[in-house]
Amino acid sequence: MSNPITFQNTVKKYGENTVISNLSLQVKSGEFFTLLGPSGCGKTTLLRMVAGFNSIEGGEIRFGDRVINAIPPEKRNIGMVFQNYAIFPHMTVEGNVAFGLKNRKVPKEEISRRVDEILKKVHIDNLRDRLPQNMSGGQQQRVALARAIVIEPDVLLMDEPLSNLDAKLRVEMRDAIREIQHTVGITTIYVTHDQEEALAISDRIGVMYKGVLQHVGTPRDIYLRPANQFVAGFIGKSNFLPVTGSEEGGKKLLRFGEYTMEMQNIVDDAPFNGKFIAAVRPEEFEIHASAPGIKGVVHDCVFLGLTMHYFIELADGMQVETIAPAEIENEIKKGSTVYLTVKPNRINVYTDDGERNMVCGVKNDAYQ
Ligand SMILES: Nc1ncnc2c1ncn2[C@@H]1O[C@H](COP(=O)(O)OP(=O)(O)OP(=O)(O)O)[C@@H](O)[C@H]1O
Ligand SMILES: [Mg+2]
C-alpha cells in the first residue's frame, strides 16, 4: 500500500518573502488529494517541495515515517505529470514509458511486461510505436501519466495536467485519471484552480488561499458547509447578504431587512446576536409571487435549458442570482416584483469578518 504524506508546520520562503507560513496536513495512504486555490496561492510551490525541486525552510515533510526534507528529488521515488506533458518528442510511446525503467536498470523482459501492462491501463496500447507529434493532446497526456506511474512511485504529483486540453477532453481525461488512480492506489496530490474539476476528481480537497489551507474536506463537506466566507465564494457561487442574528424566547432568528426566519442549526457555543453574513447559493432561494419573503424585482432572466437564472434586485440595490428549474408554465417576467425565501437548512451564516461558519456540521481537517 502507498505511503501517507505528512506536512508538519511546513514553511516556504523565497528570500524574505514567506509564501507558505505554517502548513500542516496529512494526505492519507492511497488518497486522491487536490490542492485548489486561486493563482499565486502557493499550490505549485507546495508540490515542488514534495518533489524536492524547492527547498523547505521550516517544518517537515514525510512519506510514511521517512522525513524527506534533505533527500534529493531523484531518490524520492515520485511520479509527476505537468500541464505541458513534458514527454520526449523524439521517442515513441513505448520509448517514453520505458525511459524511467531503463534508468533504474530494470531487466529488459520486465520492462516490456510493465510497459505493456501500463499502456493497457491508460488505454493507449494501440499507440505503442507512435511519436508524440502524431497524437492528440489527450493521448499525449495519457503517455505522461503512464510514464509517471510505470515506475511504481510512492507518490504521484500532478500540476494542472488538464489545463492545455479543450473542455470536452478535460472531462474525459479527468474521469480517466480518477479511474486509473483508483486502480493503482498511489497516494496522489493533484493541483488545479478549476473548482468543478476538483469536486469531480478528489477524495478530499484542500482549499488554499495566500499559502494557508482554509478548508480541508470531502467535496460534499466543502461545497455544502464551507468553513469560511472565502471558501463559500471560491467553491461554486454564493450570494452574500448582510443579515442580523438574534436570540428571542429560545429561538435563533435571522433577519434579512423586513423578512425574518427561524434557524434550527446555529451552533450553541457562541452568541447569535448582531451582524452576520448569509451565504446563499442560487439554488437555495425559492421565488414566490407574494409575501412573506425578501422583496425584490426581477432585473434579468437567462434561459439555460435545464434551469432559469433570475437576477433579482433587492430593496437595498443589491443584486442576487437565483436558479429555478425551467418549466413551460413558470416563467417570471422581467420587472415582476417577487419575494425570496431561502432553504434554512441549506444556507450558511458567517460571522461579520467572514472567518467562522455559525451553522452546525462544518467538517474541517485543516486545523488538526
Ligand atoms: N522561484 C520563485 N521566486 C520567488 N517567488 C516565487 C517563485 N516561485 C513562485 N513565487 C511566488 O510564490 C507565490 C506562489 O506561487 P505558486 O507558483 O506556488 O502559485 P500557484 O498557486 O501555483 O499559482 P497558479 O495557479 O498561477 O499556478 C507567488 O506569489 C509567486 O509569485
Ligand atoms: Mg501553479
Written account of the structure:
The structure is a single chain. By secondary structure, this protein is α+β, with helices and mostly antiparallel strands. The protein folds into two domains: 5-230, Rossmann fold; 238-360, Beta Barrel (OB fold (Dihydrolipoamide Acetyltransferase, E2P)), CATH 2.40.50.140. The protein has eight helices and 20 strands. It has helices at 43-51, 93-103, 108-121, 137-149, 167-184, 195-201, 219-224, 229-234, and strands spanning 5-14, 17-27, 32-36, 58-63, 66-67, 78-82, 155-159, 187-192, 204-209, 212-217, 239-248, 251-256, 259-263, 274-280, 285-288, 294-303, 307-314, 319-325, 337-342, 348-351. A six-stranded mixed β-sheet has the order 6-7-8-3-9-10, with helices on both faces. The longest helix has 18 residues, at 167-184. It is globular. Magnesium ion (MG) is lined by residues 43-44.
CATH superfamily of the largest domain: P-loop containing nucleotide triphosphate hydrolases
| CATH architectural name of the largest domain | 3-Layer(aba) Sandwich
The CATH class name of the largest domain reads Alpha Beta
How many domains? 2
Name the bound molecules: adenosine-5'-triphosphate, magnesium ion
Question: Biggest β-sheet: count, sense, barrel?
Answer: 6 strands, mixed
The first-to-last residue Cα distance is 24 Å
Uncertain ranges = none
